[in-house]
Amino acid sequence: MSTEPRWRRLEPDERRAQILACARRLFGERHYDAVSTTELARESGVARGLINHYFGTKRELYLEVVRELMFIPEFAVEQLAHGTIEQRTAASIDRFLTVVERNRTMWLATLGTGGGFGRDPDVEQIMQEADEIAADRMLQTVGLADTTEGRAELRAMILSFSGMAKAATREWMIRGSLTRDQVQTLLSTVLATIITRVHGQMFGDALLH
Amino acid sequence: MSTEPRWRRLEPDERRAQILACARRLFGERHYDAVSTTELARESGVARGLINHYFGTKRELYLEVVRELMFIPEFAVEQLAHGTIEQRTAASIDRFLTVVERNRTMWLATLGTGGGFGRDPDVEQIMQEADEIAADRMLQTVGLADTTEGRAELRAMILSFSGMAKAATREWMIRGSLTRDQVQTLLSTVLATIITRVHGQMFGDALLH
DNA sequence: CTCGCTTGTTGGCGGCTTGTCAATAGAGCC
DNA sequence: GGCTCTATTGACAAGCCGCCAACAAGCGAG
User: Exposed/middle/buried for A178, CB within 10 Å: 0-12, 13-18, 19+?
Assistant: First the structure.
């Protein structure tokens, strides 16, 4: 009789990726404790114990999924260093929205609740790191990466701004209460305002041109 | 010998509130599945089964906590209908920050991560409802409650704005990267910009005075 | 071709979790 | 005191998770 193996032996990376993909799907459609490791294993076509072997804990697997989702959309950073502040912010926002539009599914997944009760320090930290990377990228894109005066404050305000960017894209893509053009106008106007008026008012406006 | 009762019989509302308070505390300091109903019951000084009796499910108890946290800070809505738009937004933001500062703990708990993977439709919906109430309240406070033209869009933009408000208060209260005054300047300037420039540009600016 | 080694993978055990439900016992009322 | 109502308990069954010893896929050496 044919002795076909009962299971295939995969490279760790491969198996890991396979489980991770499955976890991404399940955690994407239901919340944490409505997904059991038993189901996770069954869907992955794998023994339950293997999940612990690769990720230690259901929770760690979950965090891995979050981490993966947050850091993926690293769109090309391109210097748009010419033009007025208004032009630069407009171009920057346009680029941002295009990327968001293109990675729609992924982006919606990372959006989640939009400021939740989560109260999960680990998730919180992952988000924060991702946000900071995004903020620095934004500073760079607008061509203010090497601002010295009030740099920390500017960065903090960009971080705040990104809270609005998330909420606005949600209005656009999920609720449909704003069009893309309206979001474009809203975000670029506000970003320009933050840089010129708010930051300018606080620290003088040497950085405007 | 003295026959003191082994447990006191309380009014349903009272017992409910007691458990809820305890749940608020525990869910506040640890994430969902790190809190067991056993612990919840022990801390509440109550049998485990009673939790199910009152809330049905651990998860429903959790959602109840979220709901309570989101809707509590209903600060007095006071018409600030005089002054320029700038003055009104400034006053409105000042009021907002004062309330936040006063209910610091509560607010931080509701803040959470600021746009998470949560992926919990129930929590999501609760947040959304709370946000909409807050947005309407904001419209009212600034004295634009009865705007007719582009009302839906204005509301959507206020909702987006509240994403920034949350992020900014986080920068201020948790990370300390902005002072309260800076947040005040940032938020009121941006809010005024949204109303006058952005909304004004889209729909004409009949509503400015 | 076979043996043997490495290590990816399994399967079941132990402890703990959660929802249910019949039984229990506060506390107000007559 | 006794009766009733129902808030509350406690134990039970099902299921979940982390652990770990045993198993076997696949590869290289002889």
Answer: buried
Over residues A177-185, the mean pLDDT reads: 96
Residue A65 CA to residue A62 CA, distance in Å, equals 5
Q: Using a CB-CB distance cutoff of 8 angstroms, which residues of chain B are in contact with residue A165?
A: 163
CA A48 – C1' C13 distance (Å)? 14
Q: Which nucleotide is nearest to A49 (CA to C1')?
A: C10
**Is the CB of A114 less than 8 angstroms away from the CB of B123?**
no
Q: How many CA atoms lie within 13 A of B92 on its CB side?
A: 33
Q: Residue A81, CB, less than 7 Å from strand C?
A: no
What is the pLDDT, as a whole number, of residue B157? 96
Among B109, B171, B185, the residue with its CB nearest the CB of A201 is B185
Tokens for B53, please give them. 């009796």
**Angle of CA points B53, B54, B56, to nearest 5°:** 65
Token pair belonging to A197: 């008026």
Interchain contact, A109 vs B121, CB within 8 Å: no
Quick one: tokens of B165? Answer: 């408000």
Q: What is the pTM of this model?
A: 0.80
Q: pLDDT of A32-64, one tens digit each?
A: 889 999 999 999 999 999 999 999 999 999 999
